[in-house]
Each structure stands twice: as C-alpha cells, then as structure tokens.
Amino acid sequence: MIVLGSTVLLTLAIGWATDRLLRKADERNSETPLWGLLRRGRIPYQLVLCAAMLRGSYDQAKLLERHHVGIGQGLTLVLIGSAAWLVIRIASAIVESSYSRYARVHRDAARVRRVRTQVELIMRVVSAIVIVVASASMLLTFPAMRAAGASLLASAGLLGIVAGVAAQSTLANMFAGLQIAFGDMVRIGDTVVVDGEWGTVEEITLTFLTVRTWDERRITMPVSYFTSNPFENWSRGTPQMTGIVYWHLDHSAPIEAMREKLRDILRQCPAWDGRAYSLQVTDTTPSTIQVRALVTAKDADDIWTVRVAVREQMIGWLSTEHPYALPRVNTSEAVLPPSRVPSPDGATLRRAYEFPRTGRG
C-alpha cells in the first residue's frame, strides 16, 4: 500500500510541476501558443506516469497475487491507451501552434484557409493511425490474439481484397478527401454553390463535407462529389466579384438619368469597392425593355449587399420621380361580334363597326 500511495502522490507531484513549467513557458513565450496547448495533455500525461510506475512496481508490491495476471494486463492496457491519448494531444498542440504561427504571418486569406484544411485533415489521419496502432498493440497483449495472428496474416491477401471491395465507396471518399486537402480544390471558409445552394464550407473530413447555407442550414455530402461533379467556388483566386441587377421597364424609361442615379447609389453604399459599374439596355420586348446594371464588390457577401441596395433604391426612385418608366399593361375594350339586321326588302345587311382604339392604363 505504501508503494501504491507513493506512486499516486509522485504522479500528482510530477504532473503539477510539469504544468507549472508549461505555464511559465507560456507566459514567457506569448508569441506562440504551443506551451499553452501542451497543457491540454496533463491528464493523459499523469495517466501514463501512474500506469507506468504501477506496472513497474506491481511485481515488487505483491498485492492481490491471485489476480496478478489480470491486474498486470489491465495496467498494460491503460498504459497503451493513455500513451496513445497523450500522443494525439501532443500532435494536436504542435499542429495547431504551427497553423496559428502561419496564419499570423501570412495575410492571404485563401492560403490560410488552404493550410487550415490541410492541417485538419492531417490531424485526422494522424489520430486514426495512432488509434489503430494502439488498438492493435492492446490486442497483441493477449496470448490468444498472438496465436490467431499467424492465421490472419496467412489470409491477409484475401481479406484485403474482400475489404477493398466492401469498402470501395469509403476508400474512394478517403482518397477524395486527401485530394481535396492537397489539391486546393475547396477549402474551409470558401463560398461555394452546390446544386443551386449558396453557402460556406464549414467542415471537411476524410469522408464528408459540410456546407452552411445563408439561411443557417447544413448540407452534408460525400467529398467524392467535389472530385466528380462541377461546382462553383467563389473564393477561388481573388474574392472580388461582379454582380448583376435586372429591371424590366417601359420603353420610355430615362436610361441616362438611371446611370446617374446608379452612380449616386453606389457612392453611398459602403459595400461597393469602387472598381467599376455600368448600366445598359440588354433586351427589348413588345411591351418592356430589360435594363442591366453591373456592380462590383470585394467578396460574395458584399456583392449581395450591393445588389439588393441598388435594386431597392432604383425601384423607389423610379416610382417617385419617373412613374411612367414602370412597366404597364396595354388594354382595349372587348370587341363584340357583328350583328345581322334585316333590311326593309328582306335582305340581311351586316352592320359595320369600328375597332375601338387601344388605350393604355
């Protein structure tokens, strides 16, 4: 019992001292979050210390000798599991610290999003590998599993083929996820249009991708979709965008006055980046004309703001200052069928009539 109690106290003391050292290192090196992130691993660190010391001193303590094998096996499993947990926490701290330093130095948002996507996928791969290795190590600690290992290795080729066929779609998504991460096709934070839905890429894993739409919905789809189907990526390259606003107006609409009004609206709109604007008549029909305005903005969010502001304010201005420019419907009185009136001599005469004039209302 003295050995057991001393082991627990020694573990707590070493854990406390290590945490104090990491805290002081974090205060001295405020430019990097590495030391602060490493403090997240203090629990698995203490588990590793405690399990290792208990496993090493258990044979000399001679406690519960009837259950010697079971307790030793349990301590070994705890040691392997906590060591895997600690490795994942350390790897996560190193990766997050590297990404934070990179994001702080580089101002290019596209490059930062690309590195963030790659970092998250790399971390998922590392975690999966560590978990698989730890699980295999735990299984190999059992004598029965060692004996079964030889027979399993003999049929490894056949099992690999069967597993590959059965998990074909899963493997395809995993390779597609790696292709997206290192091929720079789509990144976390990119604005995309998928199946007519506009949204922002929120999460990318090895098997699926989540898009958050403008109305706060989440669309989840396999990552293989992005490697086999076309989609719009508005954040690819430069985020600058050109937006279009259409109006259907009467033929008498004041086009020159509308150009001046468009310029005034854009000058008062903070979302307009000042690069370019234009207003032109792009189509005509027997009853209306189609007027198109082109405006620019620095990204997809601002282009939406500019478009709705221009559309709303232009319609309000036309309704107030130039109501005749709004589209109207041509109407006319109904034409009655010609009536047949009998003549005095018994013959029938067709009464002539005139089509009424077409009015506009």
UniProtKB/TrEMBL annotation:
Alphabetical list of Pfam families matching this protein: MS_channel_2nd
Protein name: Mechanosensitive ion channel MscS domain-containing protein
Organism: Streptomyces collinus (strain DSM 40733 / Tue 365)
Gene Ontology CC terms: membrane
Transmembrane segments: 74-95, 121-142, 148-167
Keywords: Membrane, Transmembrane, Transmembrane helix
Location within or outside the cell: Membrane
Primary residence: membrane
Domain of life: Bacteria
